[in-house]
Amino acid sequence: NTNVSCFHEARRVAIFGGTHGNEMSGVTLVNLWIQNGKEIHRKGVETKPFITNPRAVEKCTRYVDTDLNRAFTTENLSAPSGDDLPYEVQRAQQINEIFGPKGSPEAYDVIFDLHNTTSNMGCTLILESSKDHFNLQMMHYIKKAIAPDSCPVLLTEHPLLKYSTSRSVAKHPIGLEVGPQPQGVLRSNIFESMRVVLKHALDFIELFNEGLEFPPCTVDVFRVSEKMDYPRDTNGNIIAMVHPNLQDCDWEPLNPGDPMFQTFDGTTLRYEGAGTVYPTFINEAAYYEKQQAFVTTRRETLAAGAIKKT
Question: Where does the record place a coiled coil (predicted)?
Fold first, then answer.
């Protein structure tokens, strides 16, 4: 069948935890698996659990000098190495050396990057390319496996927003974003849902490597549209909060005229965009410094072609 995309076996897989040092599910799972990797072992797959930002993990802070998950730019990765560079840039270079180089045939096949959010996003998979049929098939497999529990897919492909993530050094990068969970806290339900998604993901890779062909399928995704900032005064200070009607309503429709922010004197500010959007990362703690109250997304259905191993 000419319509079947062939991919090489996914032999080398990494699981990143601690890209942000205060997102505890990934930190804890990866440390657990470094001690005993039996749970993540699959036939014919070398799965490497790895703490990406050990200094931030040690301090239980998001990062030390700069956000590691935005540090994997061509500029940073090609900069002359040295101790004068920000810690996370040095770290990005080392990670690129071990798991990359980014964009090369030597790069790891798959990297799972484990994150937590303070937003009510549930168990979200993050996809960087709508054309990655391998990842689309994997996400379809995971969604089916955990049904009736939901597993939204956030597509971060955008002409203007470039994230330069840690996982982007792999051929097939997958982000896992599970919440709500406060920074520096472990919640058992969040921990377990991250663990189970990873189990199904590794099962998929094992099945693929064994030669199972996956037929064409479709995957519903939420494509990132725009970043929405809090209302601010002329000094840049926040003058309103996420409206109670919007708080914790990640992935639910936001229509023109719906309450969006509430000022400190109780005034409601309404959404004035064109058409319905689906907000996510609502009131994420880590995004206050990025001037971001939430992200709007639009729903799309992507088609994935059949895949099998070469």
Answer: none
Q: Is there a binding annotation on residue 278?
A: no
Which residue is associated with the tokens 């309404």? 270
Instruction: Tell me: is residue 167 an annotated ligand-binding position.
Output: yes
- The reply, when asked if residue 299 is annotated as ligand binding, is no
Give me the active site residues, please: 177
Backbone angles phi, psi at 96, to 5 degrees: -65, -35
| pLDDT exceeds cutoff 80 at 204 | yes
Q: How far apart are CA 15 and CA 60, in angstroms?
A: 19
Stated pTM of the model: 0.96
- 31, 77, 128, 206, 245 from 133: Cα distances, Å: 31, 27, 12, 17, 37
Radius of gyration (Cα) for the chain, nearest Å? 20
Is 226 annotated for ligand binding?
no
Q: What is the mean pLDDT of residues 32-60?
A: 97
CA-to-CA distance for 68 and 90, rounded, in angstroms?
Answer: 10
The CA distance from 138 to 144, in Å, is 10
pLDDT at res. 159:
72
> How does the average pLDDT of the chain come out, rounded?
96
